[in-house]
From TrEMBL:
Chain ranges of the Major facilitator superfamily (MFS) profile domain: 15-441
Record-given protein name: MFS transporter
Short name of one Pfam family: MFS_2
Transmembrane domains' residue ranges: 15-41, 47-66, 87-108, 114-134, 188-209, 239-260, 272-291, 303-321, 327-349, 384-402, 414-437
InterPro entries to which the protein is assigned, alphabetical: MFS_2, MFS_dom, MFS_trans_sf
Keyword Ligase: no
Keywords per UniProt: Membrane, Transmembrane, Transmembrane helix
PANTHER family the record matches: MAJOR FACILITATOR SUPERFAMILY (MFS) PROFILE DOMAIN-CONTAINING PROTEIN, MAJOR FACILITATOR SUPERFAMILY DOMAIN-CONTAINING PROTEIN
Protein family (similarity comment): Belongs to the sodium:galactoside symporter (TC 2.A.2) family.
Length: 474
């Protein structure tokens, strides 16, 4: 793909559309699970909050180990479709099966058997998610060498993700509001979402087949553990890992507690849960072009810090929310959060691709899948941490599970636990992330100067323990 000044070539716009459609599919698949599954388990299947969150977290840990394997496999694959696309196709087939399996779970009386079924279906969902997201993320690094063009590509993928956010959060919430939040309503909703997500995931493949690709290098590290070591040796990447862990723990805690917050703190129906993501997406879309301009004017890191700060302060304001607030107030707050979140998502992803590009410049080796797999692993472990925090907090403060699918009387302490998970913890995470970003120094001039000095051969350059370029002895 040929770009100048961060602009996309017209002949490759279909590839960018493919990234956007795939982003929509995977965001929808992620959101319908993140937003609704935990409440489905506690309020429809009568599974305690602690057990449900622990099951969910254990599956996330499993998913985390699948991610680096997916990256490693896609780095080394050789097929007539290229290295990455076959994995996307497999994901497009498996993802719909997992969604139907979760929300149309068998009506078994045995809770251990039911837990086993849900665990297997969640693991299948996570595997499919890894098989799509890890190789497709690696493709973005391959498709463009331009510092700002990668931000533009990611911006369009992010637009697709915003559409997926509506599809995976608002649409199922409105379907439950219309069809009822019982088991039959969840099953019907699951079939609808599975069909739409499968169609999008498979529909992206013909477009992504046209993307510029790279081949596996002859000197590509053979051992999986070597790839993890190399990823960790890249200092900019390592710093972003720490930042991402902290931030994603907060996001995961907020995501899984949103359905509870809507029902028990705001005392509103699932209609508001659907509207929440409409307002959030509106903020996402309106602010994204501004974040692109800000990142070009003030550099990505500074823009990222600003986005994190606005996000943290806006989320903290949920601590004062309650049934007394009007729809206008709720909508405005959510729109501001969405505006900040678009900057966080876009700039974090763009800075990560810069760190991966830096590895290729320094080493001469193509191992994008190893980096994206490792980052996705971090994502899943962070999500598991957020789920464990949520489950432990609700259990410790007396949340009562049920099988009716409707709101149940909860203690004051249980409602306060939900408020902690939705407002306090997610607000502290971005503020700590800002502190951790101090050591990140990679900028556009750094990359340009490195490219200008050489394309460095793999045998002549490596990464030292601090992730900087070092000439080999002799």
């Amino acid at each position: 793909m040929k770009q100048a000044g961060g602009q996309l070539a017209g002949t490759q716009r279909s590839v960018v559309l493919g990234f956007a459609i795939g982003g929509a599919a995977m965001m929808a698949a992620n959101q319908v699970i993140a937003v609704l599954v935990l409440r489905f388990l506690t309020d429809n299947l009568a599974i305690s909050a602690g057990i449900a969150a622990t099951l969910f977290a254990l599956v996330k840990i499993y998913d985390g180990f699948v991610d680096p394997l997916a990256g490693y496999a896609s780095d080394r694959a050789r097929t007539r479709w290229g290295r990455r696309v076959p994995f996307l196709f497999a994901a497009g087939l498996l993802m719909p099966l997992s969604i139907v399996g979760i929300f149309a779970a068998p009506a078994w009386d045995s809770q251990p058997l039911l837990l086993l079924w849900i665990g297997v279906m969640l693991a299948l969902h996570g595997t499919a998610f890894s098989l799509y997201t890890v190789p497709s993320t690696a493709m973005i690094v391959e498709v463009s060498d331009d510092y700002h063009a990668r931000s533009s590509i990611l911006a369009w993928k992010t637009y697709g993700s915003f559409a997926g956010q509506i599809l995976g959060s608002s649409v199922p919430s409105w379907l439950l509001e219309s069809w009822g939040a019982g088991r039959a309503g969840h099953a019907a909703m699951g079939w609808v979402l599975a069909g739409l997500i499968g169609a999008l995931a498979l529909g992206s493949i013909p477009l992504l087949l046209r993307a510029r690709a790279t081949n596996a290098e002859a000197n590509h590290p053979g051992r999986f553990t070597d790839q993890l070591r190399i990823a960790w040796a890249n200092q900019p990447f390592r710093i972003m890992v720490f930042v991402h862990i902290v931030f994603m723990v907060g996001v995961a805690t907020a995501s899984v507690s949103n359905a509870y917050f809507t029902r028990y703190v705001l005392a509103r129906s699932d209609a508001w849960l659907g509207l929440f993501y409409v307002f959030l997406t509106a903020g996402n879309i309106l602010a994204l072009p501004a974040w692109l301009r800000i990142s070009r004017r003030f550099d990505k890191k500074n823009a990222y810090i600003a986005a994190l700060a606005v996000y943290g302060l806006a989320v903290l304001s949920w601590a004062l929310a309650g049934p007394h607030e009007s729809l206008i107030v709720l909508g405005l707050r959510t729109t501001v959060i969405g505006a900040a979140m678009s900057g966080v998502v876009l700039l974090a992803a763009s800075m990560l691709t810069d760190a991966v590009r830096y590895d290729f410049i320094c080493s001469g080796q193509r191992r994008e899948g190893a980096f994206s797999g490792f980052m996705s692993f971090v994502d899943k472990i962070s999500n598991a941490g957020g789920l464990m925090i949520m489950g432990a907090t609700l259990s410790a403060m007396g949340y009562a599970a049920s099988s009716t699918g409707a709101a149940q009387a909860q203690s004051t302490s249980a409602v306060f636990a939900i408020r902690i998970c939705f407002a306090i913890i997610p607000a502290l995470a971005p503020l700590l992330s800002i502190f951790l970003l101090r050591g990140y120094t990679l900028t556009e001039p750094d990359l340009v100067e490195t490219v200008a000095e050489a394309p460095l051969a793999a045998q002549d350059v490596g990464l030292d323990s601090e992730g900087t370029a070092t000439a080999a002895a002799g």
